[in-house]
Each structure stands twice: as structure tokens, then as C-alpha cells.
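Recall that a protein's primary structure is simply its ordered list of amino acids. Everything else, from secondary elements to tertiary packing, is in principle encoded there. The following example makes that idea concrete.
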Amino acid sequence: MALSNDFDLPVSTTENGKVRREFVDRLFDDFTNGRIDECVAAFTKDLKMEVPWQAPGMTRKCRTPEELHALLSWTYTNFVPFAITASQSWEIESDGIAVIYATNAVRERTGRPYNNEYIGLFFFAGGLISRWVEYHNPMVTVVALGR
């Protein structure tokens, strides 16, 4: 990650914080390894996933497991190789966790690197992710896609 070393947020220390972080780490491991069905199974059926800060025309919202499956499948097959890893996290009371993470990938069609950094807000219900809001630098996406 490119965040400076002096930008160090407190990590989650409660049991809920640790469990949620492990859950997100498993989600990212499944995503990195192309296990899209397992990724989708980590979400509630009435999920809400959004990427609100995107370039015009590229904003994403998923409201069903099928929409999330399509988005994750597109991402995994269009950025090869694809890897996503978390570095820091902290709890959001009472049902969430904020996670700093990064991708390391190459846009398959353009050959351009896609190395983006994110802050993701994950909210849980019944042991599954019910809402995921992802913030990142949209210009990194535009450059990688060749737009």
C-alpha cells in the first residue's frame, strides 16, 4: 500500500472485530482465487453493494446475488492476474468493519497495471455481509481500462 507509515489506524481488538476481519480476509482470498460462488455466498440475499465514487458512467450498484456475481466475475476475468489483500481494519459500531485494502492486477485487454487502494465499509447481518460500500481512486480504473 502507498499509505505513509505514519498513517496507522487502531486495529480491531474485540472478538467481533477479529471475526469480521477474518470473514473479509476469506472473502478476499476467495475473490483472488476465482471462487466467485463462495464470494456471493458470503452476502445476505438482500445485499447492497456500491462503488459510489467512480468515473461517470462507471458507478456500480448490486442489489441481488446475481448482480454481485456478474460484477465479481467480470472483475476477475478482466484483470489477470488478480489479487486483493487487506492491510488494516477497525470496527464500526455496532455491526460493521472498515477495511483498508489494495488490488494488484493487470487489465487483460490493455496490459496496463491496476494497482488501486480502497477503503471498504462492510456491515453484517446474521453472520453475513449485508452491505459493502467501496471507495477508491476512479482514475486508476480509467487508466487501466484504457478509457
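The first helix runs from residue 15 to 32. The first strand starts at residue 43 and ends at 51.
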